[in-house]
């Protein structure tokens, strides 16, 4: 899954599945080609297109 229009400081990410640990998702963050990839679980990730930075501030 990819998110194309995320604006840090304006938008927030949220996890609706209680089996996914927020700390684990934040720790998985990696940058590739100017975008941030977050692993939700094995084989499942979300890419925040064109955004990098303090991922922990993106959740709320």
From TrEMBL:
Provenance organism: Azospirillum thermophilum
Name the UniProt record assigns to this protein: Uncharacterized protein
Lineage: Bacteria, Pseudomonadati, Pseudomonadota, Alphaproteobacteria, Rhodospirillales
